[in-house]
Specification:
The chain contains one helix and 39 strands. By secondary structure, it is mainly β. The chain is elongated, with a radius of gyration of 25 Å.
């Protein structure tokens, strides 16, 4: 007679297989998902590859006190990181303190040490943490309620929660000396705050960033690069292409079918339909930087290449499909930024005798004309589509701010006047909006626009007025140095950076 295996052991074995299948199934950029604690109703997570949205459902009595019950979508990580997402509950809900947000845990045990940046059902936004196993959960409340954007950053044993209403800049809370260990579980979560109830929520713009380390040498060492496509009205973006090195400054071609960016001194045409890049032949101009602009008729490029004395950048023009580049600036550094709508002129930032100013030059070559002469850096000049103005950024008033002037250099007028450093204004093709990149003044000097910083992309009416954040990201140099609007004036292309790369789901999938 054969030995029988006890029924309870068979059931336990089957249950373990189901649990393992759940735990080790990848969800988007995350390693897995699992319920933490003795939840009554198993949670789920669904990743939509077309929108790159995560939809979570889950139950659980609470994330509080000495133990937790919730659904967790997680990734194992070490070192420093930045976690960011737009979050929203689905439906009115049952409990005022249902919870969604970012979680960092030492383990998947119900009583684990942890920290979470959390939005409650009643709008409370807070930083919650448990310092010891089975210890009591503590809390720091944000001055912001009903936050839509939640970011949680780790720097060693310090954690920074930054939250915002969509379109506004961050407000932060910091916690020091929380020891969770180097190897942690990082992810998004949902808790219904009622063991008998299941709640749902969505997470958009989900990003896990591994930032630059302290040993990184600027302009020698590079993080990975992601091209993102932004829906301006919805303020949601999708990652469409990634490489482990540096690519910068995507231009959108006039037909809307391609992006042109620079990488390792060369220019590439990135076909949006196939998701593949192809090198553009630029002849002798083979040391290209991130200042390259498409003419309004879509036929020509002006590019900047380090062909000058001691590697100084010089200005060239070349057919958009490639060919032999023609030098148009006699000296450098010269960084090309904008064509006039009629194609007759190009404006650029030039260093002449140690002073950076805005210059205009005929697109076929000829004498250059200085348009600004204020002390300090004037940079990023670009014509409006109607040709009536040149937009640029200037440090003349203290911090870097957005300005505009008439094409002859007259009527120089400041358009932004805030507590940030604002760079590289780009006017939408329909002439209604200006997008620009914003650096934090406590991270970046007014006259600098380095790689690998916390930045915003903001838009404002072309004549000035209130600005609105349309993207929160880790980037800087190369993010939007060049015009990056789509022809429909509804989308933008930009570059973000991270040492962590993850699966990209092409457009249309």
């Amino acid at each position: 007679m054969k030995n029988k295996i006890p029924r309870w052991l068979v059931c336990a074995f089957i249950s373990s297989l189901v649990f393992s299948a759940n735990v080790y199934a990848q969800v988007g950029i995350f390693d897995s998902q699992s319920d933490v604690g003795p939840v009554k109703h198993p949670g789920t997570a669904v990743f939509d590859t077309a929108t790159q949205r995560y939809t979570l459902s889950g139950s659980g009595a609470n994330v509080w006190g000495t133990h937790d019950e919730f659904h967790f979508v997680w990734k194992k990580m070490k070192g420093d990181f930045i976690l960011r997402a737009n979050v929203a509950f689905i439906g009115k809900g049952v409990e005022a303190h249902r919870k969604i947000g970012w979680m960092v845990r030492s383990s998947l045990d119900t009583n684990s040490k942890h920290i979470n940046a959390v939005l409650h059902g009643d709008g409370l936004t807070s930083l919650q943490f448990r310092r010891t196993v089975s210890g009591t959960t503590e809390e720091k409340k944000s001055t912001i309620t009903h936050a839509d954007v939640i970011q949680l950053e780790r720097k060693g044993d310090s954690y920074i929660m930054s939250v915002a209403h969509k379109g506004e800049t961050f407000v932060s809370e910091k916690l020091d000396d929380l020891e969770l260990g180097d190897d942690v579980y990082v992810g998004i979560f949902i808790c219904s705050h009622n063991a008998d109830v299941t709640e749902k929520a969505t997470f958009d713009n989900v990003r896990i960033v591994v930032p630059a380390g302290k040993s990184l040498v600027a302009y020698r060492d590079y993080l990975g690069s992601s091209i993102e496509m932004l829906d301006v009205e919805k303020a949601t973006s999708k990652v469409i292409y990634q490489i482990p090195g540096s690519l910068q400054a995507p231009n959108w071609t006039k037909d809307g079918k391609s992006l042109i960016y620079n990488r390792d001194g060369k220019l590439y045409n990135f076909d949006l339909a196939s998701g593949t890049p192809k090198e553009i032949n630029t002849g002798v101009a083979n040391k290209n930087n991130n200042d390259h602009v498409i003419s309004f008729d879509g036929k020509m490029l002006t590019i900047s290449s380090g062909n000058g004395e001691k590697g100084a950048s010089l200005g060239f023009t070349v057919p958009i499909g490639g060919g032999e580049a023609k030098q148009i600036t006699a000296t450098g550094p010269s960084y090309m930024h904008g064509w006039s709508p009629d194609g007759k002129y190009i404006v650029f930032c030039g260093d002449r005798n140690g002073e950076y100013d805005v210059y205009r030059i005929p697109s076929k070559g000829g004498p250059e004309v200085r348009l600004t002469d204020a002390k300090g850096l004037d940079d990023g000049p670009e014509y409006s589509p109607d040709g009536k103005y040149i937009y640029f950024n200037s440090v003349r008033s203290g911090l870097m701010q957005i300005w505009r002037m008439k094409p002859d250099g007259s009527e120089q007028t400041q358009l932004t006047n805030d507590d940030f450093n604002n760079w590289f204004p780009h006017v939408s093709p329909d002439g209604k909006w200006t997008v620009y990149i914003t650096f934090l003044k406590d991270e970046v000097a007014p006259g600098d626009h380095p790689f690998y910083k916390h930045v915003y992309l903001r838009i404002m009416p072309v004549s000035g007025g209130p600005s609105k954040v349309v993207a929160y990201l880790y980037g800087g140099q190369g993010t939007i140095n060049t015009p990056s609007w789509a022809p429909d004036s509804k989308h933008l292309a930009f570059v973000s950076n991270s040492n962590l790369l993850y699966p990209v789901f092409p457009i249309g999938q």
